[in-house]
Amino acid sequence: MPYTERVVLPYGLFTVLLHGSTYLLNYNDLVVYENGKRKIRGRVTPYPFRSVEQMRYDFERDVEAL
Questions:
Q1: Distance separating alpha carbons of residues 8 and 46, to the nearest angstrom
Q2: pLDDT-derived band of residue 48, with 50, 70 and 90 as boundaries?
């Protein structure tokens, strides 16, 4: 069953979509984690998936760094 979470913050929209082995974490299209890739301000790098908890931590850390 897919998991969807949307959080509206004063400074933007935070979205998490998890479905099977696919995932998407998005913060205003500035920070996007999607299926083995991490995009920060348009720059794409590989992202090695370890766990949902680690990915969420990494994503939130990248958003805070903006």
A1: 27
A2: very high
Place of tokens 């897919």: 2
Q: What is the pTM of this model?
A: 0.85
**Which residues have CB under 8 Å from 60's CB, separation 6+?**
none
d(CA 51, CA 5): 17
**Dist. CA 4–CA 48, nearest whole Å:** 21
- Which residues contact residue 43 at a Cβ distance below 8 angstroms, ignoring those fewer than 6 apart? none
Q: How far apart are CA 64 and CA 66, in angstroms?
A: 5
